[in-house]
Design brief:
two-stranded antiparallel sheet, alpha+beta, about 500 residues, eight-stranded mixed sheet, 14 strands
């Protein structure tokens, strides 16, 4: 039998002009020399050449039986002329199933195999041509993406340098405005002092004691959660502290009253806050009597006057009084006399308000610059691949719908899933980094820290990137529960020099 098999092998091989036993690749032909004993490819033993392909497994690595199914771990080589040559496990030889398109694996089984290598080759070539055409177009776009990426990098560096200058300037302006504001507030406090009711003559000790009692009472009232500290939030809930009368007690306004702290305890309140708070509380309570209270004016006149004031005055003081809701015991009283300040005090208050507004604007400008710098710095840190090719994709989002969900992928941002049936968007993950293995680092990206699955892990996405003539999300699925996979085509990966190299390796 072995002689028959051997002769068959050699005659088959003769047609390829390289004499080698059946199932041996051209590249391995030199190991199978009929003039010499055969040495198993793993070097484990030597056998007579006649024992190669004798349908009996002698080598541990199966290398003596490449053309029979005698070894469980051998490999059979199909030439597949007209298509791609390949290796199949040798135990599939003559098993009645056609594995090789040239039918060579079923040489003695009687299986009716048809040689369709040429047809497969034609199809593969057509596809390769299409892919090459796509890669050519993609490569052109890739070059444009690189140019855009480099431009973006330069623009970002220039912008960052400018912002650093702006930051220094904005910080100076803020400090300047803060100084002006502090000075104006000092003047405002002094001016408002004039309006304090004349207190009966008391000695200093009694005065201090009264001050403490009053401050403590106020502290307890404002400390609504009775935590022992008054916080910015607690201050913000009281209209008394709306200094500029715009209807909102800003954090900055609140901090002013807390002596630039987030929260104060009673001791600190007495020391730092009460001095700032007191004039406003008194004003709220109507303690600053107008120099000439319109006592004998009829009520309707008073109201009219008050409306007029509200209408044509941008003065915040009036707004503040207007917003103020009296306490229950005060509701019984007749309409409170309109608090009027002398011209100079009013003008100081207006100037103080203006100074506060300018300071707030300067503070906002500085904050905007800081935020912009932080965003830019994050972008400068990003790895945009060779020649910044992926930079222009930063922030771009791509969507894809299947039967149940709409998936979205924002590059360098986050990936989401929205059920078509409604409900809130589910985060599948945030940009984590490139996860491909060198030298193909830029063919995989990872998004993680998505919404946690019920009784499961936080969602993650692995994105595979492929060369394509457009940036497009072409596939999104969930291979394992809460582990998602996406395929994204991009011209960024259509590098013709790399393409040409891999084609060459393949054929
Ligand atoms: C949602 C979707 C699914 C996911 C389940 C897990 O229905 O996010 O993709 O598998 O939650 O409970």
């Amino acid at each position: 039998m072995s002689a028959v098999v051997l002769s068959l092998e050699m005659s088959h091989v003769a047609s390829t002009h390289v004499p080698r036993p059946r199932g041996v690749a051209i590249s391995d032909a030199s190991f199978y020399n009929p003039e010499r004993d055969f040495e198993c490819l793993d070097g484990s033993r030597k056998i007579r050449f006649e024992l190669v392909n004798d349908d009996y497994c002698d080598c541990g690595d199966g290398s003596d039986e490449p053309g029979t199914a005698a070894c469980s771990n051998g490999r059979f080589y199909c030439q597949n002329a007209g298509y791609k040559s390949q290796h199949i496990p040798s135990n599939r030889v003559n098993d009645g199933i056609c594995d090789c398109c040239d039918t060579s694996d079923e040489y003695a089984s009687g299986a009716k195999c048809i040689d369709n290598c040429h047809e497969l080759g034609r199809e593969a070539r057509a596809e390769a041509e299409k892919a090459a055409e796509e890669a050519k177009i993609g490569n052109q776009i890739r070059l444009e993406m690189c140019a855009e990426g480099k431009k973006l990098k330069e623009e970002r560096a220039t912008k960052l340098a400018k912002l650093k200058g702006d930051y220094t300037e904005a910080k100076m302006i803020k400090e300047e405005k803060e100084n002006i504001k502090n000075q104006m507030e000092e003047r405002e406090r002094a001016a408002l002092d004039k309006y304090k009711p004349v207190e009966p003559e008391t000695n200093d000790e009694v005065k201090e004691e009264t001050r403490q009692i009053e401050a403590e009472e106020y502290f307890r009232m404002v400390d609504s959660d009775e935590s022992g500290t008054v916080t910015v939030t607690e201050i913000q809930t009281r209209v008394t502290f709306d200094r500029d009368g715009n209807g909102v007690v800003t954090e900055e306004e609140a901090m002013y009253f807390l002596g630039n702290r987030d929260e104060v305890n009673l001791e600190e309140f007495l020391e730092r806050s009460w001095g700032n708070i007191k004039p406003f509380v008194m004003r709220e309570q109507g303690a600053f009597l107008p120099p000439t209270p319109p006592q004998d004016q009829p009520e309707d006149h008073l109201e009219e006057h008050s409306d007029d004031e509200d209408d044509d005055s941008s003065d915040n003081e009036e707004d503040l009084d207007h917003d103020y809701e009296p306490h229950a015991e005060e509701v019984q009283k007749d309409p409170e006399p309109e608090v009027k300040y002398d011209e100079e005090t009013q003008s100081i208050m207006n100037e103080a308000n203006e100074a506060r507004i300018h300071y707030q604007q300067a503070e906002k400008d500085l904050m905007d610059i800081t935020n912009e710098m932080r965003d830019l710095e994050a972008k400068v840190e990003h790895d945009y691949g060779p020649d910044e090719v992926f930079a222009s994709l930063d922030g771009q989002c791509f969507k894809l719908a299947d039967l149940e969900y709409v998936y979205s992928l924002c590059l360098y941002g986050k990936a989401t899933q929205s059920a078509k049936s409604g409900g809130s968007e589910v985060s599948l993950g945030h940009w984590s980094g490139w996860s491909g293995v060198e030298p193909d680092k830029y063919t995989q990206m990872k998004y993680d820290r998505g919404h946690t699955c019920w009784n499961g892990p936080a969602r993650t996405v692995d994105v595979e990137l492929r060369c394509g003539k457009e940036n497009k999300l072409i596939s999104a699925y969930e291979p394992n529960r809460c582990e998602y996979a996406m395929i994204f085509t991009t011209p960024a990966l259509c590098d013709l020099s790399v393409e040409a190299q891999s084609k060459h390796d393949e054929l």
